[in-house]
Amino acid sequence: MKKITLTTFLFLLSLSCFAQDTEAPTVPTNLVIDNVINFLSWNVSTDNVAVVEYDIYVNDVFRLTVNHNASFPTNSVNINHLGPIVYEEIYTFKILARDAAGNESSFSHYASFVEATPGTIYIPDAVFISRVMNGDNDYKGIEVLNTSDDVVDMSEYTLKLSFDGNSTWDVTYTFPPNTFLNSYKKIRILHSQTTPCFPDEESLILDTNDVITNFDGNDALGLFLNDVLVDRLGYLGDDTQYIDPNKMGVRQIFVDQHSPWVQFIVTPEVLDICEGNLGEEYYSLSVPEFAAKNIIIYPNPVKGNLLHLDTKNNLPIDTATIIDMTGKTVMTSARIINNQLDIQNITQGIYFVKIQSGNKVSIHKMIRQ
User: In this structure, are 244 and 351 located in the same domain?
Assistant: First the structure.
C-alpha cells in the first residue's frame, strides 16, 4: 500500500511540476543546410526543465517531430526524411523546440535551398562574402567575390558588423572609391596587423580597415546592396559562435544557395586567408565548366516595375513564379509578355524567380528595390 501511495504521490508531483512550468525553451539557432551530406542541423535549445522534441516545418507546413534526448542531444535530421524532395523546387525550413509541459519556443530563422538535379554544378552568380579569417588577436580578414557576369561597381555595396548579438548593425564599411570587381574577381579587406597577400592585379584588390575587421566569431557580418541585405554570416541579434578562434569560414561550392546565405564550412586547421585553394574553386574553373545558364533576368536589382527575361537559345519563356525568402508564393504562373514581367505589386526584398521554358526550369535570385 505504501508503494502504491508513494508512486501515486510522485506521479501527481510530476504533473504539478509540469503544470507550473510555463517557461518556453530557447529558440533553436544557426539553422543550416549541409547539401554535401544532405542534413538540416541547428544549435540545440535549452529549457528550465528539459527540451523533449523539435517540430520541423517545410515551406511553412508541419512535416516532422524529432524527439530530443538530453543524454544524446538531437540537432540534425536527414533532409530526405522531410520529403518528398523534388529536383529544382525551392524549400524553406524552420523549427521550434518544445518541453514536457508543452511550452513552445518561437520559430527559428528560415533556411532555404533548391534541390539540384544530380550532377548539376551551379555558379552562385552574385557578389558575396566568400571567406572570413578569424585569426588570433588582430589577424583578421574578409574576402568578397564577384561570380556574376557583370562588372560590379562596389560603391553600391557596404559591409556591416554587429557585435555580440546586438539587434542593430554597429559599424559600416564602405568600399574604396572607384572599386570595380570584374567577373570572378575579389577584394580582401585585412586588418592592418595582418600580413598582406601578394596582390595579383588581375584578380585581387586589397584594402586595409581596422574597424570592419574588428570582429570575433560570434559577430554578425552582413553584405548590403543599396542598404538591402544580400549576404551574411551569422544572424543579427544572435551571438552564436559560427567561426572558432584562429579558424577560417569558407563558403561551400557547387550548391545552389540563395542570399542571404548561411552555408559555409570552417577549416579544421589554422589557415591564412591567402593560403591554399580554399574558395579558389569559385574562380579557378573556367566558365564553360559550370552548368550553362540558359535564362537570364535583368535588371537585378529591379528599381522599376518591369523585370526582363531572356534565353540564350531563343526558347520561348512560358511562365514565371515569384517566391519570397520564406517560401511563400507571391506571384503564381504569371504570363510573360514580350519577355517582360510586371512586378509592380512586389514589395522591396529578396525573392526567387522560377521560370518555365518548355521542359526546362530555371531558378534565379531577384532583389526588388
Answer: no
C-alpha cell at 7: 508512486
Edge-to-edge strands, sheet with 157-162: 171-174, 157-162, 220-225, 228-233
- Tell me: the pLDDT tens digits for 106-130? 999 887 776 665 544 445 667 888 8
- Supply 181's cell numbers: 570587381
Residues 283 and 322 in one domain: no
b/e code 172-193 from CB counts within 10 Å (16+ = b):
ebebeeebebeebbbbbbbbee
Tell me, yes or no, if the pTM score tops 0.70: no
pLDDT digits (tens, 9 = 90+) for 31-59: 877 655 567 888 899 999 999 999 999 98
Is residue 119 a part of any domain in this protein? Answer: no
Burial 118-143 (b: 16+ CB within 10 A, else e): eeeebbbbbbbbbbbbbbeeebbbbb
Q: Residue 166 and residue 34: Cα distance in Å, rounded?
A: 27
Residue 223 contacts residue 236 (beta carbons within 8 Å)? no
Residue ending a domain, among 240, 262, 288, is 288
Distance CA 190, CA 116 (A): 35
- Give yes or no: residues 65 and 188 share one domain: no
